Structure formats: C-alpha cells, structure tokens
Amino acid sequence: MSQGPRSGLTAVSSALLAMSRHLEVRDVLKTIVASARELLDAEYAALGVPDDHGGFAQFVVDGVSDDQWKAIGPLPRQHGILASMLQKGETVRLGDVREDPRFGGWPSAHPDMSDFLGVPIRSDDETLGALFLANKKCPKPQGMCGFTEDDAELLAILAQHAAIALTNARLYERSRELTIAEERSRLAHELHDAVSQKLFSLRLTAQAAAALVDRDPSRAKGELQQVAVLAAEAADELRAAVVELRPAALDEDGLVATLRTHTQVLHRAHSAKVTFESNGVRALPASQEEA
Predict the structure, then answer these.
(1) Comparing 2 with 285, which gets the higher pLDDT?
(2) Is 40 buried (19+), middle (13-18) or exposed (0-12) by CB count in 10 A?
(3) CA 228 and chain centroid, separation
(4) Domain 5-173, CATH among 3.60.140.10, 3.30.450.40, 1.25.40.10, 3.90.1150.10
(5) What pLDDT band is residue 93 in, cutting at 50, 70 and 90?
(6) What are the DSSP calls for 2-53, one per residue?
(7) Alpha helix (H) ranges present in the chain?
(8) How many CB atoms lie within 10 A of CB 5?
C-alpha cells in the first residue's frame, strides 16, 4: 500500500528517532531491522554485521519466529548475494532472488523468499553491515509486485542513518568497556592492598606461633587464635572483591538468570541467607538490564 508524502515522512521520522534512542549495539541492530521492515512493508528483514573470518559477528532478523530461527541452524556465511553487497558496497534489487546466479540456496527450514532488496551499511570506507528485505507485501497477485526504485532510495537513506546510530553505539560500548576496565583496575588495586596486608600479617603471626609452640604454648595458642581472625577477615574481603569483579553474563543468560546466579554467589559469600524469586519478568533494553 502506497503512503502519502506526509505519512511517508512520518514513518521515516519515526524510524530514525527509534534508532537514535538506543545506545547498545544489539538494541540498535534490532531497531534498524524492525524499522526497515515496517517502513517498506516487507515480510522479512535481516541485518548482518561481518566478522574477519568470512562469517557474521552478529545477525539480526525480523519476521522469523524464534523456533524458525533455531531450526534454520548456523548463521550464513559471507557468500553469494550477501558477499557481493559487503564487498562491492552496492544496492541489490531483485524480482526473484532464487533466479539470481549468485543465489546458493538456503536451509530447508528457511522461509521461502522471492523479491529482494539489500543495501550495505557504510561509514566512510568501512562496510559495517548488510541490511536486506524480502517479500514486499502488496494486494497484487504473487509475482506481480516487488520493491521499487523508491523503496531502494528509502532503504539507502535508512542505511545512512543506521551507520551513524551503529557507529555511536559502538563508541558508547567502547567507552563503557574502558570505564569497566578502569573500575576493575581500581578494585584489583584495593584487593592487592587490603588482602595482601591481611595475608602478610597472617604469615607473620603464624611464624610467631610456630616459634612459641615449644617454649610458650599459651602464647602460641593466642597467636593461632589471631591467625584464625586474620584468615576470616582476608576471606571476607576476598569474597566481597570477587562479587564486585564478577562480570554479569546478561547477553548470554538474560536478566533473571544473571540475578539468580548473582544471589547464589552472595549466599555463598555471606552468612545471611540470600534468595531470589521472579515472576513474569519481560526482556528489557540492554542498558536497563545492566542497571
């Protein structure tokens, strides 16, 4: 269904605003894909971020269910049409992707696709990813409609802004990684200062107890009691530091599993009983889950 000038501009504006709202790379990728699919009224959309080994470091899809995606199997490699988009930096618009000589097939669980539109996401001379859509929705019979030149221009504009949003998200994550590294360095310094001093005192006290055990057993007993106190204090400080240093596996495990694991660590580290219960917690943006 065609959009009027005002509704089209509103849709583009909404898509660009949605991309600019997120700071996490994964959230930005998801928003780009969902915005492109909605804006151009496609059945499927995907975005692949290439790695340095002929595959994709990240691959985000929209329009495919989680069960379908699991059944499809491993991520695609950089070959065929995807490789051409990444290497040549060209827009690809096809009436039927299956008839293109570069088409190499897809897994049996992969949804059937015909009309195809793909654009590279570029920043200066670097290709950040490949954004593509398939199966344009329209009221005409199958095979009688597809992506137009106007669609290609619109997706190219979206890709330009996607490059900015993706670059900003990467810069944000790198900045955050530096902050985390600095914090861990600080904690490591505190760990060295506090625990090392305790262990040094513990060692001297143990040596004093060993020297007194034959000639003054009562004093040796007192020194050994002090050893126990110092060892307990060192263990408490070490546990506290380990809890702070432990990285949360939010990307892999999600918020609920990460919180449950974290409370298990706290329960083992302290004498107080620490438990965690959850009910109907939905997925949140990465920045909120981290907070």
Answers:
(1) 285
(2) buried
(3) 44
(4) 3.30.450.40
(5) very high
(6) ---HHHHHHHHHHHHHHHHT--SHHHHHHHHHHHHHHHTTEEEEEEEEE-SS
(7) 5-20, 25-39, 66-72, 80-88, 149-212, 217-245, 250-269, 286-290
(8) 7
Model pLDDT for residues 217-231, shown as the tens digit of each residue: 888 888 888 888 888
Residue 10 tokens read as 């509103």
CA angle 113, 114, 117 (to 5 degrees): 95
Q: What is the pLDDT of residue 147?
A: 93
- What's the CA gap between 239 and 245, in Å, rounded? 10
The number of beta carbons lying within 10 Å of the beta carbon of residue 196 is 11
Residue partners of 171: CB distance under 8 A and separation at least 6: none
Q: Which residue has the higher pLDDT, 51 or 242?
A: 51
- Say what the pLDDT of residue 117 is: 96
In single-letter form, the type of residue at position 151 comes to D
Distance of CA 133 to the CA centre of its chain: 22
pTM for this model (two decimals): 0.59
Cα–Cα distance, 217 to 200 (Å, whole number): 23
- Exposure letters 109-125 (e unless 16+ CB within 10 A, then b): ebeebbbbbbbbbbeee
Domain definitions of the chain by residue range: 5-173, 183-290
What count of other Cβ atoms lies within 10 Å of the Cβ of residue 210?
12
CA dist., res. 53 & res. 68, Å (int): 26
- pLDDT of 91: 92
Q: Which of 169, 186, 202, 242 is nearest to 20 (CA)?
A: 169
